[in-house]
Amino acid sequence: MSHDKKTITIIISAVLVLALVIGWCSWRKHVTSVKEAQTSASVHSQKSKTEKKAQKPVLTDEQKEQNKAIALQMEKDMRNWGVDSLADPHQWAKQPADQVLAALRTPDNIETPSDMPVSMKTNQAWGSDAPSYVCNMSDYQSLCDTMPTAQAWWRNEVWGTGSRWVKDPTVTVLDNGKVRVKGTVRSILVTSGDTYSMGGYNALTPAWRDYRIDDVLTIDNDKVSDVEYRSNQYWWINPFLSQWTPDNVADNLGYGSRIAIPVSGGLNWNGMNPTGITRVLNSPTSMGDMDGKVDWSMWDDLIQAGNTAESQQQAPDLDPEKDAATIHERE
Question: Which ranges are annotated Basic and acidic residues under compositional bias (predicted)?
Answer without folding.
Answer: 48-63, 319-331
